[in-house]
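<goal> How does this chain fold?
<body> The protein record starts here
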Amino acid sequence: MKKIKTKKNKILKFYTAKEVFKKSSKSEAFRDAYHEELVRLKLVQQIKKNRLENNLTQKALAGKAQMSQSVIARIESGTHSFSLGTLNRIAKVFNKEVELA
């Protein structure tokens, strides 16, 4: 933690990401949400990797999966969630199956 005094004599405390994460990771709810987000982001990476390996544009993938290109763009941006149904439609394009372990 780093403390800085402002011009108005107010003390501001700054914490590193590591300090914040260490404190937050003690919460089971935080750990569960963090793990869920990591899984989602790994799926996003796999979708983009498969698309590029198959020389498909977002538009081509979307057409094969019967959805709009904007859906693929939002998924690949990593900022939007997606349904299991959407994931399954994309997986079928690559002859893959969604499997829950």
Observations:
- Residues 28-93 form a domain with the 434 Repressor (Amino-terminal Domain) fold (CATH 1.10.260.40).
- The first strand starts at residue 2 and ends at 5.
